[in-house]
Amino acid sequence: MSINAIISNSLSGLFTNQAALRTTSSNIANINTPGYARQVVQQEAIVNGTSVGGVRISAIVRVVDKFLVRAVQDANADFARSEIENTFQSRIQALLGRPDQNNSLSGRIDQVFNAMSEMALNPLSSILKESTLSAINQFGEEIGSLGRQIQNMRADASNQIAEKVERINALTKRIEGLNPLIMNETLSGGTPGTLIENRAKSIAELSSLIDLNVIDTGNNGVQVATSSGITLVGLTRSVLQYSPPGVVTSSTPFPQITVHQLDAVSGAIRPSNLQLDGQLTSGELKGLLNLRDKDLSEIALQLGSLAAGFTDELNRVHNLNTAVPAPGDLTGVSTGLLATDNHRFTGESVFAVTDSSGALVAKVTIDFGAIGPTLGDVVAAVNAGLGGAGTLALTNGVMSLTAAVATDGVSLSQVAGNESSRAGRGFSHFFGMNNLVEAKSPSHFETGIVGTDNHGFVAGGTLQLEMNDSDGVKISEFTLTIAGASFDDILTSLNSSPLSTFAIFSFSPTGELISTPKTGIGDIKLHVKSDSTSRGATNVPISTFFGIGDAFRMDAAVDLKVSTVINGDPSRMALARLDQTAIVGGNALSVGDQRGALALRDLENAAHKFLKAGGLGAATVTLAQYSANLLANLGLRAALATDNLEDNRALAEELSRKSSDISGVNLDEELGNMIIFQNAYSASARLLNTAKEMFDTILQIVN
Fold it and tell me: Which of 498, 490, 503, 614 is nearest to 545 (CA)?
């Protein structure tokens, strides 16, 4: 072997072991760095033709188990999702308070009925009336505050989604930038270990935000996609876009997260309709989407259902009652009904006018089966029966009864055993003529119409509908243009539209518009994007008439309070009942009559039919029982979120431990390697020194 060969061999040993020592030092320095994978130097002999001369580094590789790395990424995504969901569920529990506390929903309902019980003992007490009204308002404030907080939490989730989207874009940009550097270093025989480690950290963080599938493309390059196959980093990079709404209410439409390709030359973002929302299975982003579109919406629906039941029951009884003295007018709510509509009432109602002392001035009992078929016929029959003492009117969908003399009062009541009914509600109750409680949205949408009725909507008006699946992803849309004559014509339009691919539309026996998902479709939701329709001159659009979309049911808990009229004049609180046997001139209303007050008190133990709402099944229970069911359901959600968090935490930690056992730095092993490399470095140095001495000897001989 020549002296030059000795020098070449010794230098290769020096350089190789110097790089190995740097790698070992890096391993030791990162012994406590989470997720760090130790690097190992792979060496090979330098072969020149048929001769071997020296050593070189063939590669510096990270020691990882690819199967475990993928499992850790999946587990981290599940853990991140459960962690964000548990955080929100804990916030909800903090809002609700304990069931035995007065400021909880159950406590507020108890306060209402306790106040009513005291008022029933002395219905003449203005203080007890005001106390009852205050308790009702406090319940409304409590459930309304919860409703607003839930919408605020949906806004918070939406804003966090925007933040996560921006972070995902930053991480994919970094991965895209590191990929060519790593591949170039690999192809040129360099040492890309540090670059690979930095990329691995970005991928690990990305896996907690979104479920990933990382594919090795060769030469240490990777392609990053979602588990569903949407490429984030490949030949080009994808950019996610999401614009959160500024203010969130029950009717706020949330935009989709869209996936856009970057133009490889200009870097411009290409337009795209590809949606990410329904493609995710785990990660923080999936957890936030699930909270925004499902969990929090379901809770808002449950609150709305409780509020609607509370409102409907109090109004049902209050519309059976009358104040003493009776008020000069009773004005209902806007129903959207027209004088030409079929009244479709059965049974009998009593319309009466009394003077300031409670003496009967006029009375008429209307048998709805014995008069004309329309609401106009009802108005005419009542007015004829009252003989000018009072006037019933239907104006722009609002029914009202007004006494002709300013000092007289009016009242409505049901005939016992043959009560009037349209869609299960009496005449006064259906039109809300003597309501005790009001809210932003009606407590029911049982319109009482049948398909053959004239729909009454102005021709040419449009209703733009969007249909979403359970993940909030748009699956169809349709613009309904009012045409035809009957409600069946509207059904025909809906059932022949693109929406019919996913649902069948029908009317319930009580006149509700129902959308039933087709087999295998799963849950669907309708969202009203715009509505320019109007039923006659009532200005009631078709979406409001039927309560299309979840927003109307959520809003039953918004602005719930005592009727403005009664809140301003507690004496109008109806706590008595009309004596239907009284004759003209006889006493029909008695001061101190507590029958109406007792009926309100008895609502505490009266069962109300609640429909399915946000995970709570249909049930016929008392208001307090439904409130307890709601709180129990929310408690169960929180418990499940906590259990899921702990299970995913345990799995993630166990998989991380197993991965660390393979990839982690062992200090003893690294110190042993350091001694080996130092000795090898020293040996190479001695070999170089020997070559130097040989040269010196030759030079001395020559000289």
Answer: 490
Identify the CA nearest to 151 among candidates 247, 237, 16, 220: 247
Contacts of 389 (CB under 8 A, 6+ apart): 353, 361, 362, 403, 404, 405, 408
Kindly tell me if the per-residue pLDDT of 435 is higher than 90. Answer: yes
Q: How far apart are CA 503 and CA 505, in angstroms?
A: 7
Cα(393)–Cα(375) distance, integer angstroms: 10
Residues 21 and 63: beta-carbon distance below 8 Å = no
Q: What are the domain boundaries of the chain?
A: 3-63+664-702, 462-546
Q: Contact, 537 vs 479, CB < 8 A?
A: no
Show the DSSP H helices in 97-226 as ranges. Answer: 105-121, 126-187, 193-209
Cα separation, 38 vs 287, whole angstroms: 33
Question: What is the C-alpha separation between 451 and 460, in angstroms, rounded?
Answer: 20
In 346-492 the beta strands, taken as DSSP E runs, fall at 348-354, 360-367, 390-395, 398-403, 409-414, 437-438, 462-469, 474-481
Partners of residue 112 on adjacent β-strands: none
Q: At CA 34, angle to CA 32 and CA 36, rounded to 5? A: 90
The pLDDT value recorded for residue 224 is 94
pLDDT category of residue 50 using cuts at 50, 70 and 90:
low
The closest of 425, 420, 439 to 547, measured between CA atoms, is 439
Closest CA to 578 of 412, 341, 404, 375: 412
Report the C-alpha gap between 141 and 563 in whole angstroms.
Answer: 14
- Residue 5 CB-density burial (10 A; 0-12 exposed, 13-18 middle, 19+ buried): middle
393 within 8 A of 375, measured Cβ to Cβ: no
Tracing tokens 């509509």 back to the chain, one arrives at 341
C-beta separation of 604 from 296 below 8 A:
no
Q: φ and ψ at 307, to 5 degrees?
A: -65, -40
Give the HSE-up count for residue 483: Cα atoms under 13 Å, Cβ half-sphere: 6
- Segment 609-630 mean pLDDT: 88
Residue 557's contacts (CB-CB under 8 Å, 6 or more residues apart) are 143, 144, 146, 147, 300, 303, 304, 306, 307, 308, 439
Beta bridge partners of 214: 224
- Compute the chain's Rg from CA coordinates: 38
- H or E element at residue 621: strand 619-621
What secondary structure does DSSP assign to 256-313, as a single string? Answer: PPEEEEBPTTT-PBPP---B-GGG--SSHHHHHHHIIIIIHHHHHHHHHHHHHHHHHH
Instruction: Report residue 618 CA to chain centroid gap.
Output: 20
**Whether the model pTM is above 0.85:** yes
Phi, psi (deg, nearest 5) at residue 167: -70, -40
Q: Residue 425 — φ and ψ, nearest 5°?
A: -125, 140
Q: Residues 314, 136: contact at Cβ < 8 Å? A: yes
Distance of alpha carbon 68 from alpha carbon 75, whole angstroms: 10
What tokens appear for 29 in the block? 């320095």
For the stretch 615-620, contacts whose Cβ atoms lie closer than 8 Å and that sit 24 or more positions apart, written own/partner, are: 615/298, 615/302, 616/302, 616/305
Of 447, 425, 423, nearest in space to 316 by CA: 425
- How confident is the model over 401-426, as a mean pLDDT? 96
Position 497, amino acid: S
Q: Does an H or E element contain 379, and which?
A: helix 375-386
Q: At what angle do helices 66-96 and 623-663 cross, to 10 degrees?
A: 150
**Spatial distance between the Cα atoms of 629 and 623, rounded to a whole number of angstroms:** 10
Nearest alpha-carbon partner for 139 in 314, 378, 272, 267 = 314
Give the pLDDT confidence score for residue 113 in this predicted structure: 94
pLDDT digits (tens, 9 = 90+) for 317-373: 999 999 999 999 999 999 999 999 999 999 999 999 999 999 999 999 999 999 999
